[in-house]
Amino acid sequence: MSRNVAPRELLRTVLPALLLAGVLTVVAYAGTGPTAGFFFAGVVVVTLLTPPLVLAEDRRLGQLLCAQSVVGGVAVVWLLALGEPSITASHWLRADAVLAGYGFALWGVAALFRRLISMTRAGVMFSATIAQAVTIAVALAWLAWPVWLSPWLAGHERLVGLLAAPHPLLALDAVLRASGPPWSERYFMYNFLTVLNQDVAYELSRSIVPAVLLHAVIGTVALLLGRGRNVARLGVDVPDRRRSDARERQVSEDLLP
């Protein structure tokens, strides 16, 4: 199959994803302003949009363009935060790198889940739908572990460090540390949602490399494992022509006088 993309097909693939991600991120900006929450909202937008939009494309090139468009739509709107003195172009570039790695992982995992589900009888008709739902659920669980998992991590500081270093939201929190207190010290997080920095000690990563690298590796491995056409195993019985011919000859001999 040709890897070339016609201009009309390119627009059909890129423009909806770019605009939808941009519009949702603008809505988030209206609610949060140029804060860390604005950047966190962009990660959530990528989480919700990337799996269904990339799985709507059959070719890998179309999926790649779609994933890049979702990340690009969010990143362009993130430029609005540069009006805040504490957020610089360097912060924006590092946040974009974290988002790009995360979006790449979402694409790979969604493609892998679709491939695996399409190989089962239960996933014949709904492999894309099931795959995108599972991918979003897994991604949200990964993003939210500081809330639901932190009460169980007391006394396991090494494990907390391994989980915190590549976490997208905590990586963004480290990038934007000059814009306000850490995420775990915000009012609702500290009082209602997490025990990080209370019962569970942790430190923000000094670099975005763990977050970018881990998600890049996950995306690469998942795409390699999930490559190939998403062809479901329908389990259709194929008639044996030789047996069919033999039966026809037997019927013909039986009808002879």
Descriptive notes:
- The protein is mostly helical.
- It has one domain.
- It contains eleven helices and no strands.
- The model is unreliable at 230-239 (pLDDT under 50).
Properties at a glance:
257 residues, mainly alpha, single chain, 0% strand, globular
Order of helices and strands: HHHHHHHHHHH
Q: How large is the radius of gyration?
A: 24 Å
| Poorly predicted ranges | 230-239
Helix segment tally = 11
The major beta sheet can be summarized as: none
Number of strands: 0
Give the N-terminus to C-terminus distance in angstroms: 57 Å
For the record, the count of structural domains works out to: 1
Strand content: under 5%
The coarse overall form would be: globular
Mean pLDDT: 85
Give the oligomeric state: single chain
Helix share of residues? 55-70%
Q: Which structural category do the helix and sheet elements fall into? A: mainly alpha
Topology:
Layout: H1 7-32, H2 36-55, H3 60-78, H4 89-118, H5 127-143, H6 145-148, H7 157-164, H8 168-175, H9 187-193, H10 209-225, H11 241-255
Helix pairs in contact: 1-2, 1-3, 2-3, 2-4, 2-5, 2-8, 3-4, 4-5, 4-8, 4-10
Quickly describe the structure.
With 257 residues, this protein is mostly helical. The chain has eleven helices and no strands. It has one domain.
